[in-house]
Design a protein that fits this description.
The protein has 449 residues and is an alpha/beta fold. The protein has 19 helices and 14 strands.
């Protein structure tokens, strides 16, 4: 049933709107202050919020901003008895679906709410379609030219058809969720749900309810029984991102699911059963977390049957330019910007930068560069000044020989000098394919004439 939250401190108006919407077949909840509404939305977000602009504790316009920040798919319709152009403009900037004057809303409110639900349905269909397209790419959608990444792909392909628990390790932004989705897509569970949970993003007091669900009345605001994410993933895959952030008391309950397939909803006593594959990910050293008493050793051995360590981007320089080209193509289409050329200065800076944020940072940098570009040619002027400054500290030709990529570049250059530029002979001496040699010449900008 489609759900609406009505927020108005005037009880008569609140009850009137609730009755009107209930008669139209909607499930309606009531809140009388902004803070009460925020708590209810945090626990169980509705699809549509109908909110008065003037509330006793917060402006409805500001409340709209707070709601949209955390729940972008929730549509907010604001109502006011006092027409104010400035408020109306700010409301739309804050993401409101519409802004209505009380008194004018009698004939407009139901059609407006219907349009809001239509927009939500369309957004959800598009989201599912985009997610499905990404999932269907599977391993073929992962850019991995670096030997270390190719090894990771080989391991992932081997473990995918099994039900073995997988632990993906690596720094933040190295692509752990993409790997998890690819493993699911290549498994026998690929027709079932893939449910991703960021353990670090769920408040400590809500994580049990989110994972295991709750019954009506289990806590304040729990007005109906709700499925947990583990139940949503039944017969499919549950991806627990940043599992190292999971509270210690929740780890015992997760261990029970792994060992027996059993769990109990919050506020209930009945035992529920699931058949779910667990893929976990963390940027932490779980062995150190165990030593500090922050992670259960028995849970660690359950989730880490098969481990894959994804290397940071700075250790897979062969992938930087291909990834950048992919993001350039993606954001050019998304932002409707036509990029005709990528300057060599742009590529050099990307190759020399340290990339502490890994692929996620590269993605954000490319998006920013395309937004600020003015001549359809990406150059170092389109990159953040601090990135350019760091990259220019060490010329590409003077990188430390202890850097793996630098050592490889120097060696290839020496072999090409020895063969006097004969690439076929150089590839033979290097014991690599000719196509691989050409790719590395382009990657490292090696002079061959």
């Amino acid at each position: 049933m489609q759900r609406i939250l009505v927020i108005d401190d005037e009880q008569k108006i609140n009850h009137l709107l609730t009755r009107l919407l209930s008669r139209e077949g909607y499930e309606v909840q009531q809140a009388f202050t902004g803070q009460q509404a925020l708590k209810m939305i945090e626990i169980d977000p509705p699809e549509v919020v109908l909110c008065d602009v003037r509330l006793p504790d917060i402006s409805g316009v500001e409340l709209c901003r707070l709601i949209k920040e955390k729940h972008s798919l929730v549509e907010v319709i604001l109502l006011t008895a006092y027409g104010n152009i400035q408020d109306g403009v700010q409301a739309m900037k804050n993401g409101a679906f519409d802004y209505l004057l009380k008194g004018d809303d009698n004939d407009k409110i139901i059609p407006l709410i219907q349009r809001a639900f239509e927009k939500i349905a369309m957004a959800m269909r598009l989201s599912r379609l985009e997610a499905q397209i990404e999932v269907e790419k599977g391993f073929d959608g992962i850019i991995a030219h670096a030997p270390a990444m190719q090894q990771c792909l080989e391991y992932a392909r081997k473990v995918a058809p099994t039900d073995t628990a997988v632990l993906l390790q690596g720094e933040t932004g190295t692509g752990k969720e993409i790997f998890a989705r690819a493993i699911h897509q290549a498994s026998l569970r690929n027709k079932r749900n893939f449910i991703a949970v960021n353990c670090a993003a769920i408040p400590r007091e809500l994580i049990e309810s989110e994972l295991f669900g709750h019954t009506a009345g289990a806590f304040t605001g729990a007005i109906k029984t709700k499925k947990g994410l583990i139940e949503e993933a039944d017969q499919g895959t549950l991806f627990l991102d940043e599992i190292g952030e999971m509270p210690i008391e929740m780890q015992a309950k997760l261990l029970r699911v792994l060992e027996t397939g059993e769990y109990v909803r919050l506020g209930d006593h009945r035992i529920e059963r699931v058949n779910v594959r667990i893929i976990s990910a963390t940027h932490r050293n779980l062995q150190e977390e165990i030593a500090k008493g922050r992670f259960r050793e028995d849970l660690y051995y359950r989730i880490s049957t098969f481990q894959i360590h994804l290397p940071p981007l700075r250790e897979r320089k062969e992938d930087i330019i291909p990834l950048a080209e992919y993001f350039i193509s993606y954001f050019s289409k998304k932002l409707n910007r036509h990029i005709t050329q990528v300057d060599q200065s742009f590529r050099d800076c990307l190759l020399k930068y340290h990339w502490k944020g890994n692929i996620r940072e590269l993605k954000n940098i490319i998006e920013r560069s395309i937004i600020i570009d003015v001549d359809h040619v990406l150059s170092k002027d389109d990159l953040p000044p601090d990135l350019v400054h760091q990259a220019e500290q060490i010329p590409l030709s003077q990188l430390s020989a202890f850097d793996l990529a630098s050592a490889e570049k120097i060696h290839i250059q020496k072999v090409l000098n020895y063969t006097r530029g004969n690439k076929t002979e150089a590839a033979r001496l290097l014991n690599i394919a000719l196509t691989t040699l050409y790719r590395k010449i382009e990657l490292y900008h090696i002079e061959t004439d």
